[in-house]
Amino acid sequence: MTSPSTLTDADVADTAELMEQILYQVKRVVVGQDRFLERVMVAMLAGGHLLVEGVPGLAKTLTVKTLADTMRGSFKRIQFTPDLVPADLVGTRIYNQKTGEFSTSLGPVFANLLLADEINRAPAKVQSALLEVMQERQVTIAGETHRVPRPFLVMATQNPIETEGTYPLPEAQVDRFMMKVLVDYPTDDEEFVIVQRVIGERLEASPVASIEQLARLQARSREVYVDPSLIQYAVKLVSATRNPEKFGLRDTRRFITFGASPRATIGLAEGARALAMLRGRSYVLPEDMSDLVPDVLRHRVTLSYEGLSEGLTPDLLVDKIMRAVPAPPRPLEHDRLVA
């Protein structure tokens, strides 16, 4: 059971102020994409990896790159292509002819913030090279274990799977992403501003936070109070993706091949904590969790051939599940304090 929050109002205010500074710097360069930016902030605070999907040209890469510019930490970018090999990501052993010894050359995954650009442009064996580092925060090369810097976040962009020249991500890797965010086209007004900024004076983000500060914010996020009823709500939502008939969705079972894993339940709880903190609270409300449900579940629900033939999408199924599993009432403030 989660213990009551030990965060002070000053802690929450400091966090909100710093995240606002980061957001201000990012929005100097990136136009619109407010929901996407909020999810990026949630992933940063919760220490979870983020998968971003959208057609080319929607500023996915620019957003993550600009975010990295606001942090005084190490940033690496990997452009995934069909000719990559796993050693290009994690590193390899190199033989030195002069000394007759092998040395280890570490790959670009050794960074605080890793941008995996167009991750589904590379085949599965290359994508799978990220499995260990995303879960264990370490890489094994020739039997030797090397830990990556802390904090460590992977933000990956991908094109829709129907796009030419893409490979589907392995299920084991997709599950390691805390959230999958869909990025859509900008509005006409936003596109007008985008063009103005591109043809005008070049703007760049300034560093306003350090990696040490991010680590402290992540530690504070883990102190946000989550009521047991909300944890139970997360458990029910994830369980409904595996056994929908338990929640009155008997006709939905044939459309689902695989449901979400326990990582989804953990992601909902951790993400709701981070979102509550971004919204200036030291405790989670039901809307904090329900707002994140589509992003946490959409990439973890695998449709059956029958579901695909019916024209269903994971988002439609998740919406159906959310209507079948009601959120708990908002916990009263005195109930939270007594707990």
UniProtKB/TrEMBL annotation:
Entries under Gene3D superfamilies matching the protein: Magnesium chelatase subunit I, C-Terminal domain, P-loop containing nucleotide triphosphate hydrolases
Pfam families, per the entry: AAA_3, AAA_lid_2
A Gene Ontology BP annotation from the UniProt entry: regulation of DNA-templated transcription
Residue stretches making up the Sigma-54 factor interaction domain: 12-159
Alphabetized UniProt keyword annotations: ATP-binding, Nucleotide-binding
GO molecular function, one term: ATP hydrolysis activity
Name of this protein: ATPase
Keyword Heme among record annotations: no
CDD domains: AAA
Species, as recorded: Pseudacidovorax intermedius
Family: Belongs to the MoxR family.
